[in-house]
Design a protein that fits this description.
215 residues; mainly alpha; Hypothetical protein af1432; globular; HD/PDEase_dom; HD domain-containing protein; HD_domain
Length: 215
């Protein structure tokens, strides 16, 4: 029996992402897949195939995980050509994936519900307890300090400044993570973000209490 598209993508991606230590590993892709399917069903969607594939593939072309934008995009296109999809389906999946990234606030405006679902799922995995763990994993992989009180929180960044400017992991909460709750696109995403956002606020309160030697 031939493999389904989801099985093909899983078999291809799992070994390539299993050893990632930046918070963008196979388990992240799997969580985003599950969250995307949950949100889609809660929002009343029935055509889940493109959403599931886009969720699994959403990090393949990410600039921060590739040498450059072009090489990442080519990698994604090559995978899609291995799947049993129409040209229209491939274009739809690529459009969804292109809309996911935060890009320092320079994000793409979206209207398609599939893109809203996958974007919300990816951003939910960036907040809460797992979001905190992933943030410190990514900061460590980039050589960023836990916290540098001499740095200011950056606002209105270009994509280049967001990717490569000087920052700390704690600053990243204020530059991105704490903004995500209000950027959710679906009602389900907004509900799920509330608890995760509150957890991060509690973590930061405790972090600064300990940082300042108050307990």
């Amino acid at each position: 029996m031939p493999l389904s598209n989801v099985e093909k993508v899983t078999d291809y991606l799992k070994p390539k992402f299993s050893d990632d230590a930046s918070g963008h590993d196979w388990h992240h892709l799997e969580r985003v897949r599950r969250l995307s399917l949950y949100i889609a069903k809660q929002e009343g969607l029935t055509d889940l195939h493109s959403i599931e594939l886009a969720a699994l593939l959403h990090d393949v072309s990410d600039e921060k995980l590739n040498d450059n934008r072009e090489s990442g995009q080519k990698k994604l296109e090559n995978i899609l050509l291995l799947l049993d999809l129409t040209d229209k389906e491939r274009e739809k999946i690529q459009a969804v994936i292109a809309s996911v990234s935060f890009k320092g606030g320079n994000e793409t405006a979206i209207t398609e519900i599939e893109a809203k679902v996958v974007r919300d799922a990816d951003r939910l995995d960036a907040i809460g307890a797992i979001g905190i763990a992933r943030t410190f994993a990514y900061g460590g992989s980039k050589g960023n300090p836990l916290f540098n009180p001499e740095l200011r929180v950056r606002e209105n960044m270009t994509i280049e400044e967001y990717r490569n400017g000087e920052t700390s992991t704690i600053h990243h909460f204020y530059e991105k993570l704490l903004k995500l709750k209000n950027l959710m696109c679906t009602e389900t995403g907004r509900k799920l973000a509330e608890e995760r956002h509150a957890f991060m606020e509690g973590f930061l309160q405790q972090f600064f209490k300990e940082w300042n030697g108050q307990g």
